[in-house]
Amino acid sequence: MLRGDKIRYRDVKNEILSRIHDKVWPPGSLMPGEIELAEEFGCARATVNRAMRELAEEGIIDRKRKAGTRVNVSPVRHAKFEIPLVKVEIEGLGATYRYAFIGQTLERAPDWLRARIGLEPDDEILHIRCMHYANNAPFQFEDRWINATVVDKARKADFSAISPNEWLVNEVPFTDAEISFCASSLDQTMARFLSMTAGEPVFIAERTTWLNEQPITFAQLTFARGYRMTTRY
Amino acid sequence: MLRGDKIRYRDVKNEILSRIHDKVWPPGSLMPGEIELAEEFGCARATVNRAMRELAEEGIIDRKRKAGTRVNVSPVRHAKFEIPLVKVEIEGLGATYRYAFIGQTLERAPDWLRARIGLEPDDEILHIRCMHYANNAPFQFEDRWINATVVDKARKADFSAISPNEWLVNEVPFTDAEISFCASSLDQTMARFLSMTAGEPVFIAERTTWLNEQPITFAQLTFARGYRMTTRY
DNA sequence: CAGTGGTCTAGACCACACA
DNA sequence: GTGTGGTCTAGACCACTGC
Q1: Which of A59, A221, B2, B21 could pair with A76 as two cysteines, CB 3.0-4.6 Å apart?
Q2: Angle between helix B34-41 and helix B45-57 axes, rounded to 10 deg
Q3: Do residue A105 and residue A197 come from a single domain?
């Protein structure tokens, strides 16, 4: 202990992590209870509790009332990614943001979309396409579908002035979201907007949100060449 | 309040969230201090503290000593991805896992790697290449670099028997990790191993870990066609 | 320097889940 | 029932940082 000899919850956490790593408490085994550990470390139970609570959040251990605390068999690591507004992401890079509306239509949902996000057969969908630029260079192509049957006020929004991305964040809350990343090859149309060549590999993010089981929106975001999504943890 | 009239930290958290959503405390504004809120809610400061600490972790608010707590201007959403062992990931899909060692060399770190993860000029690097299969179909090509100067026992490990991925998880702890995703086009060599065609778009994950500032390992993981990384939040 | 959040304590009661 | 984790309290001291 560096400053003073106070045991802090971080010390407890690190000590527990070491013991797990050194197989003092092997995977699957039952760890001592909070009271016992508090006595051993010479600190309050609340301190041990905080350390163990964080370890549980991180997926290192598994805690159950009465059953006690066990070391997880497979140490699943979690990486947290920030999902900001495109605008914020671009400005965060120190670049100037520009938005460009391409076009929109009101249509019945295509079958693949119905299946993918769980729409009703008669749901009307607002289909918007637009571009996001960083320092006037293409950054992201946004292919956005909004469930107009549920989000009625989307019919009256002016997406030539505000990006659907931003409009939705401000106007429509959601309870569940799914995001998925993949690589694909660029088609002719998007290649034009992104100033790239058809067939080039591109990074794609697809995002769906629901409000109490009702599908709100689906977006396919195609990033320009060289995009990279990074996080530390 | 449902059970009794005890205020729990969840109640505090929800109340704060409502107020932020209702713009009682607009984005960027300074919220009341913990003591003030504790008095208002009729609970202990620790209870308010826990509520606010969690909101800060979630990126909803920003806390600074002396400066106080502010509502974040852009509600940054966080998506949590699980980073399991390839083996666990494949078995989790209900497929049979198979590992294949390709080859390894001990070399000086190439410049790009030195720059990328912060190696010393004289560090020796163990360079391993291997494959992971799901139901005997190529799943992932692993291009792994291990800092043998720091992780000395890696020199004696038998990577034809155990994948570096698994070996590292069991043998070497880390304090910091970075993961990044991007899309690229497949080169000739990897195309052969992945049973794909050179030039095809592929999804790539790159992962670096450090133990107390010392670089431990860098891995470039190239996934077979159609791979998709998904999470709900 | 002084105010705000960060953390610890010691004790208490509660809720859940296993026996 | 009974033990374990979950949470709250009231008070205290500390550490960072803006003024």
Answers
A1: A59
A2: 120
A3: yes
Q: What would the pLDDT profile of B21-63 be if each residue is shown by its tens digit?
A: 888 999 889 999 999 999 999 999 999 999 999 999 988 999 9
Residue found by looking up tokens 């790539």 in the block: B204
CA A191 – CA A199 distance, rounded (Å): 8
Examine residue B80 and state whether it is found in any structural domain, yes or no: no
A8 contact to strand C (CB, 7 A limit): yes
Interatomic CA distance for residues A204 and A115, integer angstroms: 20
For residue B180, give how far its alpha carbon lies from the nearest alpha carbon of chain A (Å). Answer: 4
- Look at B178 and A230 and tell me if their CB atoms are within 8 Å: yes
Q: What is the pLDDT of residues B137-147, one digit of tens each?
A: 999 999 999 99
Q: What is the CA A54 to chain-centroid distance, rounded?
A: 20
Same domain, B111 and B183: yes
- Encoding tokens for residue B59? 């990126």
Domain of residue A51, CATH code: 1.10.10.10
Length of chain A: 233
pLDDT tops 80 at residue B211: yes
The answer to whether residues B145 and B36 belong to one domain is no
Let me know if residue B59 belongs to a domain.
yes
Return the structure tokens found at B179. Answer: 């993961």
Task: Assess whether A161 (CB) lies less than 7 A from strand C.
Answer: no
Same domain, A158 and A199: yes
**Chain A residue with Cα closest to B83:** A77
Pair (B40, B104) in one structural domain: no
What is the pTM (predicted TM-score) of this model? 0.80
Minimal Cα–Cα distance from B76 to chain A, Å? 5
Question: What pLDDT score was predicted for residue B212?
Answer: 77
A66 plus A16 within the same structural domain: yes
Asked if strand C comes closer than 7 Å to B65 Cβ, the answer is yes
Range of the domain at B177: 86-223
Number of domains in chain A: 2
Q: What is the pLDDT of residues A156-191, one digit of tens each?
A: 989 999 999 989 887 887 778 899 999 999 999 999
Q: In what order do the strands lie in the sheet with A214-223?
A: A97-108, A124-134, A137-147, A214-223, A201-211, A176-185, B228-232
Query: What distance in Å separates the CA atoms of residue A44 and residue A49, rounded to the nearest whole number?
Result: 9
One domain for residues A63 and A153: no
Q: Is the pLDDT assigned to residue B2 strictly greater than 60?
A: no
Using the structure, give the distance in angstroms from the CA atom of A8 to the C1' atom of D13, rounded to a whole number: 13
